[in-house]
């Protein structure tokens, strides 16, 4: 660990610039995963692929992240954290830039899998890396700042990438993202401290973690929270069309993003002291917003406010769950967060499948009932999980 970092941990000064640089990594990380969603029509036309094949560009990426996260994080535990992050950023950059020049759907899928593997290692390791650069009292704050990039990537980055794709073509969007990743990697070479890896002990192995009741509670909260949120979010366009929202999807995403940004800022300030209260509030706001959609979804103004409330709930989702699971272990926090990250990705796949089935049978409003049905037990578990989440 560098002298500067050691001084920061001793004096308690929070290294904002380092954390913001790490936040930019999660910003481009989520864009790398979701990019095809924003430029899907152009890719379908250019590559002559179906909508299902287009969906696989995101699906295979997520599957690779979920499958490879735990084993690869365990295998790379002894790697220098800075070196590993630079390798992963290189993988992200290459997988996006090269895809922008290819005409072969099969090769692009292969590159998407490579990107997914890099993501499976990056998401858990970046949080653990950040925690090693601050005092223990600031772990939650570090995770909140780093994972803010994920929320901002969804709410601000995706509309930007979609704009670039619409105006300049999907290939330019992919290449531009890859170029941005290379810039972040270059900054990381000079700015981030070199931090050694650590040995994986039997007590901190993935299997050992599954024997800790508090970890299992957090994984259950991950499943409930992610499926509830993403079951609706994946089909947000269908919801907007169903309730005939004034201003359409653009207005919905703007209000959702505003709520997300506010809740991320609150998470940065309060996660360390009030993790349990914030988790309860996250589920509560989700229940309230979904209920408002059901009761007043077609009432202009009230429906718009519901999207803002939903954003308040959605914003700190990743931050709170990763902060919670990292509290359960003293060492090998990368492994703990990799288990949670895998559960997160698998939950997104469950959400997409379950919501797709409901949407095929009923109206988009049925997704709101699914979200409430999952969020209510999530709220109750959070209320009573004082050992896992704190008082």
Automatic annotation (TrEMBL):
Gene3D superfamilies membership: MFS general substrate transporter like domains
Its membrane topology: Multi-pass membrane protein
Cell compartments where the protein resides: Cell membrane
Single GO term (MF): transmembrane transporter activity
Residues of the Major facilitator superfamily (MFS) profile domain: 17-390
Signal peptide stretch: none
Main location (coarse class): membrane
Keyword Zinc tagged: no
Sequence intervals crossing the membrane: 12-31, 58-77, 84-102, 108-130, 142-164, 170-192, 212-236, 248-268, 275-296, 302-321, 342-361, 367-385
Pfam families recorded: MFS_1 (PF07690)
InterPro entries documented for this protein: MFS, MFS_dom, MFS_Efflux_Transporters, MFS_trans_sf
Organism name: Hymenobacter actinosclerus
Name of the protein: Predicted arabinose efflux permease, MFS family
Keyword field: Cell membrane, Membrane, Transmembrane, Transmembrane helix
Any one annotated GO CC term: plasma membrane
Classification via SUPFAM superfamilies: MFS general substrate transporter (SSF103473)
Lineage: Bacteria, Pseudomonadati, Bacteroidota, Cytophagia, Cytophagales
């Amino acid at each position: 660990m560098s002298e500067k970092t050691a001084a920061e941990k001793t004096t308690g000064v929070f290294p904002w610039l380092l954390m913001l640089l790490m936040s930019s990594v999660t910003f481009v990380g989520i864009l790398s995963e979701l990019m095809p969603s924003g430029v899907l029509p152009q890719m379908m036309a250019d590559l002559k692929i179906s909508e299902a094949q287009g969906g696989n560009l995101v699906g295979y990426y997520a599957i690779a992240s979920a499958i490879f996260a735990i084993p690869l994080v365990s295998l790379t535990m002894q790697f220098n954290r800075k070196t590993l992050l630079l390798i992963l950023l290189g993988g992200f950059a290459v997988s996006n830039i090269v895809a922008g020049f290819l005409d072969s759907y099969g090769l692009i899928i292969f590159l998407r899998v490579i990107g997914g593997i890099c993501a499976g290692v990056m998401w858990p390791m970046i949080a653990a890396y950040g925690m090693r650069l601050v005092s223990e009292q600031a772990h939650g704050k570090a995770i909140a700042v780093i994972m803010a990039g994920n929320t901002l990537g969804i709410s601000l980055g995706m509309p930007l990438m979609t704009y670039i794709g619409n105006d300049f073509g999907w290939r330019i969007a992919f290449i531009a993202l890859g170029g941005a990743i290379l810039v972040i990697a270059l900054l990381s070479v000079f700015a981030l401290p070199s931090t050694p890896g650590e040995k994986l002990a039997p007590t901190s192995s993935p299997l050992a973690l599954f024997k800790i009741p508090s970890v299992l509670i957090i994984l259950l909260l991950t499943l409930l929270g992610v499926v509830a949120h993403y079951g609706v979010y994946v089909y947000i366009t269908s919801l907007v069309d169903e309730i005939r929202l004034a201003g359409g999807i653009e207005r919905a995403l703007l209000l959702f993003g505003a709520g997300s940004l506010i809740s991320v800022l609150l998470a940065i300030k309060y996660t360390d002291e009030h993790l349990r209260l914030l988790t309860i509030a996250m589920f509560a706001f989700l229940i309230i917003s979904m209920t408002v959609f059901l009761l007043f979804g077609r009432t202009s103004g009230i429906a718009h406010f519901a999207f803002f409330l939903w954003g308040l709930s959605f914003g700190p989702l990743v931050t709170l769950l990763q902060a919670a699971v990292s509290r359960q272990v003293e060492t090998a926090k990368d492994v703990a967060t990799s288990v949670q990250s895998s559960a997160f990705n698998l939950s997104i796949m469950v959400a997409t499948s379950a919501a797709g089935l409901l949407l095929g049978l009923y109206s988009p409003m049925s997704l709101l009932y699914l979200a409430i049905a999952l969020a209510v037990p999530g709220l109750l578990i959070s209320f009573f999980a004082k050992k896992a989440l704190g008082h």
